[in-house]
Amino acid sequence: MTPTISLSNVEATFVHLLDDFATKLDPPVECRIAGGWVRDKLLSLPSSDLDIALSIPSGHAFAVQFVDYLKTKDIATGSVGRVAANPEQSKHLETGTTRILGLECDFVGLRSETYADSRIPQVRPGTPLEDASRRDLTINALFYNVHTRQVEDFTERGLSDLKQKIACTPLPPRQTFHDDPLRILRCVRFASRFDLTIDQQVMDAIKEEDVKAAISTKVSKERIGIEVTKMLHNNPFKAMTLIDNLGLHSSVFHCEVDPPRASASASAQILSQLNGRFLVDETLWLATAATPFAGVNIKRKGKDLPAAAIVISEGLKLSTEVKNNVANLFEAVKLIDPNASAGRSEIGVWMQHPSVRPWDRSLTWAVVMAVLPGWKGQWDGEAEAIARLYQNLRQRIVNMGLIEAIDKPLLINGTEMQQLLSIRPSPLFQTIRQALNAWQLDHPESGKEDAEVWLKQMWEGEGREEWEANCQPKGGVKGEKRKR
Question: What angle do CA 59, 62, 63 make, to 5 degrees?
Fold first, then answer.
């Protein structure tokens, strides 16, 4: 029995209006909602993005007329945008995009695609079967017929694959992935998001060397980055595991250096064990993918740059912020010391370091990197002992009140410091500020007057000599030992 879709009031109104408009055209136009919306509705998931597949080529022309019709019904809509099938295609294949009743709607003609050497297809009008066959997975190739209110499964296995939680391609998988290698990453993304089992023939096709290689040769870095980012939204551990099991890591996280990749899977396994005990977010999952590049540098304009950062910025074309967040984690590990004897200021100072912020994310990564060298593929007593060591450190941070303390401004600002010590801004100035910061962390109950007294005493006593020594260029004056 073909399942039915339960429409919300807004969706029911939209479908009624679309049906009414399309059937009154001369000739009538068949309308089907395609792909992800149908899948999500069958899974009882919310969805507000509708792809409407039409029996005529131009979705843009149809959308313009439909919006004009809706205006006569006093239905509020957005303006109609135009999206070409690709820059070299003629206008009769253009997509129309607009917002209707709060729903994001793309109107596009049913189409068939053929591929040459590029993943950009040659597009022509097609049948519903041809349109369904060109899609990445059978579960994404379902249609909802606006006129019959029925789900249509032209691949004849989309519904069963959705019920049995199988990821399978409408066409033979090698052909599907050869036409567009990006579909490999989409397969991984949907398999992880919906906890699907990838069909064995699909897995075998993905593992073929020429199929995997096409990801880095035919798909833009930007598109790879977008798919990887989407993978991290739902079940990132399964996504990273699939990438490893399918042998995709070097194709997805591509770089001119190619270190052994085993640490990526291992660090992902460790991170999955920490979820619920420590902060775990998308940046940390990206860091697991970059783990094989830890400690490796790449020359750029005569400078040594961390390969982990290059993979994120150049291999995935992600933002500078994301690149820095990932690269900083590997630097933060060098600063975080879980030693129980560390004092309040020692802990507070490394918490304030730009590479460590946010400190709780860096603390999680420090656990991963501490467990990694002894990782045996499963959580054991050694791993648990390390995790508890860092949990104790986190508890000390809480007990010491450092979470709030590290963001408090200095009790004495720069202008006041100049006046108090009768000095001008200089490299020494920053050294004094660092000393005041450490003192303030060690004396949380002290106020501004206390800080002024301490600073004045230090300046007039042994502190000045120490601070000036710490301001000397590295190595200091030849033959002179740097005082601490």
Answer: 85
What band does 475 get if pLDDT is binned at 50, 70 and 90? very low
The continuous run of DSSP H or E covering 437 comes out as helix 427-442
Strand-pairing partners, residue 166, are 197
Distance, in Å, from the CA atom of 271 to the CA atom of 280, rounded to the nearest integer, reads 7
The DSSP bridge pattern shows strands 49-54 and 31-34 to be antiparallel
Q: Residue 116: CB partners within 8 Å, gap ≥ 6? A: 122
Amino acid in position 456? K
Domain of 126, CATH number, reads 3.30.460.10
Which residues are within 8 A (CB) of 284 and not within 5 positions of it... i.e. 6 or more apart? 271, 329, 361, 364, 365, 368
Do 460 and 378 lie in one domain? The reply is no
Q: What is the pLDDT of residue 90?
A: 46
Q: Within this chain, do residues 134 and 175 fall inside the same structural domain, yes or no?
A: no
Give the total number of structural domains in the chain: 4
> Where in the sequence is the domain holding 198, given as residue range(s)?
166-243
Instruction: Write the secondary structure of 142-179 as one string of H (helix), E (strand) and C (coil).
Output: CEEECCCCEEECCCCCHHHHHHHCEECCCCCHHHHHHH
Looking at residue 477, its pLDDT comes to 37
Final residue before a domain boundary, out of 132, 164, 196: 164
Distance CA 223, CA 180 (A): 12
Whether 152 and 29 map to the same domain: the answer is: yes
Co-location of 342 and 444 in the same domain:
no
Pair of tokens at residue 355:
């590479």
Looking at residue 429, what is its pLDDT?
86
b/e 37-69 (16+ beta carbons within 10 angstroms → b): bbbbbbeeeebeebbbbbbbbbbbbbbbbbbeb
CA distance linking residue 411 with residue 446, whole number of Å: 9
Reply yes or no on whether the pLDDT at 483 is more than 50: no
> pLDDT tens across 111-140, in order?
876 655 555 666 677 899 999 998 999 999
Residues 401 and 419 in one domain: no
* Peptide linkage before 338 cis (omega within 30 of 0): no
> Which of these ranges, 92-101, 136-145, 274-283, has the smallest mean pLDDT?
92-101
